[in-house]
Each structure stands twice: as C-alpha cells, then as structure tokens.
TrEMBL record:
Entry keyword Hydrolase: yes
UniProt-listed SMART domains: HDc
Domain HD: 65-201
Keywords: Hydrolase
Name assigned to this protein: Deoxyguanosinetriphosphate triphosphohydrolase-like protein
Length: 384
C-alpha cells in the first residue's frame, strides 16, 4: 500500500472476496492481483485498437480506449492518494472499466444494442463485467479472471433493476444487490467514475482541436475552458504568440488540475462531515465523492458543448455511421453462418449472445477486415 488508508477506504484484508476462493499471494494483496490480471488480459491489449472518438485509421496520435483507460487510472490514483483511499483498487477499476466496449466507440455499442434488441440487449458496462467474469480464458479451472467483489462492483457502474434481480438470483449478495437496495458503490468506484468524466472532458478537447473539428475560438465560449485559457495567458505572456498546441496544452493542464483539486476538496469536506465508520458504512450514505456544485455545473456545460460540437459533428457522424453498418452486417453474417466464427463461439448454446460477444471483443481494424472478408465491401479503405 502506498499510503495509510482512511477508515472508510476499501481495505484489501476486508474484501468480500472472490467468487472462487484462492490462496493469498506472497507479495501482493488482492486488489493488486486484480490490477495485474487485468493488465495481462487479452481484452486489455485489444483496447489499443478500439475507438475513443476518432477511428483507429484516422490517425496514430488520437486517444484510444487503452490510452483513455491509462489516463483515468493516473487521475484516479492521484485523487485517491490525496483522499487516503485505495489506489490499487481505483487503478484496477479504471483499467477494466472499458474492457467491454465495442469497436467504433459508442456508435458500435448502439448498433450492437439494436442487433440484440430481441435477445437481451447490449450495454458496455455489463459487457465489461461479462469479460472479467466469463469471457477471458486464462486459467485451467475457471472462466474469467476471478476478480474481487470490489473490483467487479466498480466495473458495473449501472444496471437495470430487472437485470440486477436476475443477477441477485444467480449470485446472492453479489454485485447486483446494491442496485436493488439503492446503496452506493465503494468510494473507490465513485472516484473512478468521476476520473473517467474528467479524463474524457480533457482529452476529447485535445483530440477535437488536433483533428481540426474544434477551434480555440469555439472552446473559449465554454466557461470552464475560457477561465483557464485566460489564466494561462496571464501567467505565461509568451503564450500569446505561441502555437495553438502550446496554448491548448497549458489550458488543458490547468483545467485538469482545477477539476482534480475541486474533487479532492469537495469530497474531503463531505467525508469529514459524514465520517463513515468504514467502507460498508459509506455505501449506505449518499454519493460522497464528487465535484462542488459550481464545478459540477461547469463540467456539465463542457459535456454539452462537446456533444453538440464534436460528438455530433457531421464528419464524426459520417465515419461512425460506417462503423454502425459494419457491426450490423457482421451480426447478420455470423448469425446466418456461425461457422465463420471460431469454434468456441460458433458452437455456443446461445448463438445471438455468442455473436455479440465475438463482435464486442473485436478491434476497429479487425472488424473492418472481417467485414471486407464477409461482404466484399471496403467502408474504410484506408484502414487496410
């Protein structure tokens, strides 16, 4: 452990444990083992070729799901250290939180959800849990990574009540129970969820300007960005004549720091006031990790701007629509000809779910190549 833990932190020796008991490791605690299992998983390696906003073939310098996950882990560890929470658990959740994401980002998720409408639907948080619980095949005696309850709980950020009830039947007292009881996740899970928001607000701004789809002038219309842009210019007069790259980097650095310090200060005050006895007591309270009211509004304004000006930009929509088409075509092709998939997927009892698992695990470029192999179409010719 890198620092003393607060009473309300998730202490590894008080973990609710794994679904299958294992002997303790001689040099690592359980949350550290979880982190290491995630890093060595097949699904984690695939994140390097999965879309964040811009598709893999559109440029080597844009964020991917892997770099996003690393940025979330870095931010999460920094915040958790200041709050005396468990850094290793935060890192494990951060590195696993996007393992279930489809190729082609949220467009791929939406397309796969449409394909699965008659078969239980698709949601990437649920798929991330499915990956670590079932789909990874690395151990001789079980499927999945057999992670601790606390890591699995952090991966499952949201869950419909009906599904939570079914999960509770299969795993009494498991990760679905809190959605039925209205309890919170651990403080570390709350923190990681917020670090995720801070990370993509910053790096999507960076990628948006790098792509040419956003300009500094547009961003200066957003209060969160403008405030820190002005501060950067005042602190470093030479930036006035510098490149947009330098101006943007310094502004984003300040914007990130302001959000991190705000979370630390606001959360520290809530924790001091609530003073939960331990991690279990903290779950029974309202959310304790979060922005101040002012920063929460500023962050929401930034998200609305990004949704309007970047995520729904015609150029982004055009490329992601091609991604949707690839997902739809692949689903139809594999459903009608399962033998086109590897045997362990083709022979599964629940074929639609198996097809869904196979497609969700693909990288952007593998999905593109498979689509060309099966249909003869080249929707992203530059990707080949």
């Amino acid at each position: 452990m890198n620092a003393p833990l607060a009473p309300w932190a998730s202490w590894p020796q008080r973990s609710r444990g794994r679904r299958r008991a294992e002997p303790a490791a001689p040099t690592r605690d359980d949350f550290q083992r979880d982190r290491d299992r995630i890093v060595h998983s097949t699904a984690f390696r695939r994140l390097v070729y999965k879309t964040q906003v811009f598709l893999n073939h559109e440029g080597d310098l844009f964020r991917t799901r892997l770099t996003h996950s690393l940025e979330v882990a870095q931010l999460g560890r920094s915040i958790s250290r200041s709050l005396a929470l468990n850094e290793d658990l935060v890192e494990a959740i951060a590195l696993a939180h996007d393992l279930g994401h489809t190729p082609f980002g949220h467009a791929g998720q939406d397309a796969l959800n449409d394909c699965m409408a008659a078969h239980g639907g698709f949601e990437h948080n649920l798929q991330s849990l499915r990956v670590v619980d079932e789909l990874e095949q690395r151990y001789p005696d079980w499927d999945g990574l057999n992670l601790c309850f606390e890591t699995r709980e952090g991966v499952l950020k949201r869950c419909p009540l009906a599904l939570a009830q079914r999960m509770e039947q299969r795993e009494p007292g498991g990760v679905g129970q809190r959605f039925m009881l209205g309890h919170q996740a651990s403080l570390e899970a709350q923190l990681t969820n917020l670090a995720d928001e801070i990370a993509y607000n910053a790096h999507d701004v960076d990628d948006g300007v790098r792509s040419g789809l956003l300009s500094l002038d547009q961003l200066r219309g957003v209060a969160l960005f403008e405030r820190h842009f002005q501060d950067a210019m005042a602190a470093h007069p030479a930036l006035t004549g510098a490149t947009v790259k330098r101006q943007l980097a310094e502004t984003i650095r300040r914007m990130l720091s302001a959000q991190v310090y705000d979370v630390i200060d606001a959360s520290r005050a809530r924790l001091a006031e609530a003073a939960p006895e331990d991690a279990e007591a903290a779950r029974l309270l309202g959310p304790l990790i979060g922005f101040s009211a002012e920063m929460k509004q500023a962050s929401a304004d930034m998200k609305r701007f990004m949704f309007r000006e970047l995520y729904r930009h015609p150029q982004v929509v055009a490329t992601t629509e091609a991604g949707r088409q690839i997902i739809r075509d692949l689903f139809a092709a594999y459903l009608s000809a399962p033998a086109e998939m590897p045997d362990d997927y083709a022979q599964a009892a629940d074929l639609p779910r198996s097809v869904c698992d196979y497609i969700a695990g693909m990288t952007d470029r593998f999905a593109t190549r498979e689509h060309h192999r099966l249909t003869g179409q080249r929707l992203f010719p530059q990707a080949d």
